[in-house]
Amino acid sequence: MAEAEYVKDGSEGWATRFFVIWTGQAFSLVGSSLVQFALVWWMTSQTGSATVLATATLFALLPQILLGPFVGALVDRWNRRRIMILADTGIALATGLLIFLFATNRVQVWHIYVIMLLRSLGGAFHSPAMSASTTLMVPGKHLTRLAGLNQTLQGVISLFAPPLGALLIGLLPLQGVLAIDIGTAALAIIPLFFIAIPNPPRQSAQADGEVIKPSYWQDLRQGFLYVVKWPGLLGIILMAMLLNFLRIPGGSLTPLLVTKVFGKGVVELGWTDTLFGAGMIAGGLVLGAWGGFKRKIHTSLMGVLGISTGVILIGIAPSNQFFVLLIAMFILGFTQVFANGPLGAIFQSAVDHDMQGRVFSLVNAGATAMMPLSLMIAGPLSDWLGLRVWYWIGGVLCLVVTTIAFFTPAIIHIEDQPKKPSVEELPVIAG
């Protein structure tokens, strides 16, 4: 496999190479969404247990939380294209095993747990490898627009995957639905064999005139030091984790909000998902066409302010005016694109290429770890003080955090890279 060179602003021919890979990955995401829908439906119909569903979610999160910080150093050490090929292949093989279990009527709930764990493990490697490869294949000036396109894709999948999954389950046996994931995985893997992805040069240490390659643990240490010693990057990561902590419970509490506060049913609950997905699609299209403000961080923080507005609107919506909740859900989907897309582009453009695997893995691990932690707190608090309380708390604190970020020079000037540590100056040899 020949390696490509980095693309730069003004480079030609990058779009064809990148979007062939991107399209394959998009189909793979659709297949993964169908697998998730099919497995959740099977566990729900077979057990009817909330504990089973919660346990399955935990198994799906564990690799991202526990292994995420350690995976990044491997992504930076290894060939990123091979990582994506092996990760996608491993995920497809796990699905293949599940197809066999369903076809032979041997499947049990614990099998689902194990398969979800294995698929999540593959994702823990694939996600940072794909994100880090993107910055090597796409000119920096297009990263924000690409982020908008990615958000649009997520919106389309969230909008259409559930009804498509329901339709397919009605037409095919469950193993037939799962088999679609094998085909979509092939669409993601095959282009990677023919399109070169560059790998960044590795940093080395000098000792008595001899070049010394850092060990895995030294690479891992470098990654942590790189984040800790860059105030702007550390501040944005901590801010993103806190905002994730405040935002996540809102989605989990929505079914109870729709039924208990607004007195509606499953159809209206479906409309909340539809409006959220439509908002993501619209926001992604706008961001993709516009590209955001000159400073990406301004676009991201304005998006967070929009999220805060949507969350507070949910908290104050009169219980007899369900349409206000639908408006709020559209606002949340629309503004989430402007919050997340540019933030990812900042990480991709500002972080050194040979550090991106480690940094992206740390970001993913931190954000994912907020999910179970926030749900553990928000659930009992909402039972105690009422469902609306968390929306008030989350919305107001999001406003406060964003306001602080606007007046924090290290964050607002992150793209100027003030106090950014030089990779060459970070200690390589553990002392």
Structure commentary:
- The protein has helices at 14-47, 50-77, 80-103, 109-137, 143-171, 174-189, 216-228, 231-261, 266-290, 296-316, 322-350, 356-385, 387-406, 409-412; strands spanning 205-207, 210-212.
- Strand 1 and strand 2 (210-212) form a beta hairpin.
- It is globular, with a radius of gyration of 22 Å.
- Strands 1-2 form a two-stranded antiparallel ribbon.
- The protein contains 14 helices and two strands.
- 77% of the residues lie in helices and 1% in strands.
- Helix 1 packs antiparallel against helix 4 and helix 2 (50-77) packs antiparallel against helix 12 (356-385).
- The chain folds into two domains: 14-200, Up-down Bundle (Growth Hormone, Chain: A), CATH 1.20.1250.20; 209-424, MFS general substrate transporter like domains (Growth Hormone, Chain: A), CATH 1.20.1250.20.
- The protein is mainly α and 431 residues long.
What distinguishing features does this structure have?
14 helices, 2 strands, 431 residues, two-stranded antiparallel ribbon, globular, 2 domains, Growth Hormone, Chain: A, mainly alpha
